[in-house]
């Protein structure tokens, strides 16, 4: 598997984002939250993913951008866990929801646990 985060996997569509937050379900592994929604056929990939860090918790853009970069990197390196057995197309949003300044290693561990929790959640349905 290629460990890339190509342009066609980035969640940019306003309609998909609105659908994600109106119809989506979520899985949480403190301090991360994964909101997901099954979407119709995507033309170029099985998933679309976006990341978000709250301005409420990190006032400086430098800090928000750092955590968004870390979230994208942990996704890129661990997306094989997320894509494990997906038959349907999904839209995802990963959110960092705390003031705590975790290290890269801690965020990476939490991301893996979050993706595994998502896999269990969709298998149970």
Automatic annotation (TrEMBL):
<comment type="subunit">
    <text>Consists of a catalytic RNA component (M1 or rnpB) and a protein subunit.</text>
</comment>
<keyword id="KW-0694">RNA-binding</keyword>
<comment type="function">
    <text>RNaseP catalyzes the removal of the 5'-leader sequence from pre-tRNA to produce the mature 5'-terminus. It can also cleave other RNA substrates such as 4.5S RNA. The protein component plays an auxiliary but essential role in vivo by binding to the 5'-leader sequence and broadening the substrate specificity of the ribozyme.</text>
</comment>
<keyword id="KW-0540">Nuclease</keyword>
<dbReference type="InterPro" id="IPR014721">
    <property type="entry name" value="Ribsml_uS5_D2-typ_fold_subgr"/>
</dbReference>
<keyword id="KW-0819">tRNA processing</keyword>
<dbReference type="InterPro" id="IPR000100">
    <property type="entry name" value="RNase_P"/>
</dbReference>
<keyword id="KW-0378">Hydrolase</keyword>
<keyword id="KW-0255">Endonuclease</keyword>
<dbReference type="InterPro" id="IPR020568">
    <property type="entry name" value="Ribosomal_Su5_D2-typ_SF"/>
</dbReference>
<comment type="similarity">
    <text>Belongs to the RnpA family.</text>
</comment>
<dbReference type="Pfam" id="PF00825">
    <property type="entry name" value="Ribonuclease_P"/>
</dbReference>
<protein>
    <recommendedName>
        <fullName>Ribonuclease P protein component</fullName>
        <ecNumber>3.1.26.5</ecNumber>
    </recommendedName>
</protein>
């Amino acid at each position: 598997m290629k460990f890339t985060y190509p342009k066609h996997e980035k969640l940019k569509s306003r309609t998909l984002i609105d659908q994600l937050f109106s119809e989506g379900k979520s899985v949480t592994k403190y301090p991360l939250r994964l909101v997901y929604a099954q979407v119709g056929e995507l033309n170029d990939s099985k998933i679309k993913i976006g990341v978000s860090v709250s301005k409420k918790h990190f006032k400086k853009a430098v800090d928000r951008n750092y955590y968004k970069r870390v979230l994208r990197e942990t996704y890129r390196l661990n997306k094989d866990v997320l894509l494990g057995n997906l038959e349907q197309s999904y839209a995802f949003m990963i959110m960092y929801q705390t003031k705590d300044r975790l290290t890269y290693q801690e965020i990476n561990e939490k991301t893996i646990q979050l993706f595994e929790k998502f896999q269990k959640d969709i298998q149970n349905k």
